[in-house]
Predict the structure.
Amino acid sequence: MNLRRIAIITAALAVITAPAAHAGDESSSESLSIGVLFGPSIPSQSVNSVYDALANESISAAYDVASNLGYHAAAKLRFGLAGSLSFSGGVGFIQFPGQQITYDRDGFDLTLKTVTTYVPINAGLAWVPFQGFIRPYISAEAVYTYRKVSVSENRFTPDLINQVFDGELEPSSGRLGAAAGVGLELNLGGLRPFVELKNTWTNLVTKEAGEPERTFLNVSVGLIF
């Protein structure tokens, strides 16, 4: 089992518990809501290491491992369209520090520590089966993601970087992809704390030849106003 399977199980539980909680619904369609969220971001190739820490150590150990891989902060909004179907959108800021680029050519042998930054803009649909005290939801969104790689340490001068990398470590890029998420909110009146798991495929739709697939999992806690 891994974190993606946990997300699937959470979604299944949301569907199973919907009939029992439906009696507490406030309305058939939700009103406009705006929220903020933050938490660790985990590259897809590192999900198993986080799960191993969760299975063999503790939740805090797994959180520490995940936090060292990357982190994010985001804002989101949602409003009802018809029945249990809502529009879902948002914008985020994600960073993965502690990465490396090795360059061995033309007499240079350099290893640079880098940080990769993503700025995703999401828009799509969410299914919110009921509007009671407990509010599970599932979302599917299209995502446009801006990506930039920069040096995270200052041992190399801008002139050297310009000479070796022609001014850029990697060309900044924008890609079209997709995201799928599952979450659980608690309705405390004017405020709704929530937890969310969201997997993002940044270049699922537009990817150049030879470009690797870039995906990550966000584990978030947040608050809706």
In short: Residues 3-21 form the longest helix (19 residues). The chain has four helices and eight strands. Strands lie at 33-43, 71-82, 85-105, 108-127, 134-151, 173-186, 192-201, 215-224.
